[in-house]
Amino acid sequence: MNKESYLKELMEIKSGTVKAFSEQIGIPYTTVRSILERGIMNAKMDNIIKICNGLNITPESLMAREIVNSVNKTYEDKIITVFSKLKANKKQKVISYAQQQLEEQEYENKIYEIPLVGKSAANPSIIEYGDVDIELGSFAHIPYGADCAIVIQGDSMEPLIKDGEIIFYKKQPDIENGEIAIVEINGDGVTCKKVYFNIEEQTIILRSLNDKYSDREVNDDEIRIVGKVILN
Question: Which CATH code fits 3-85?
Answer without folding.
Answer: 1.10.260.40
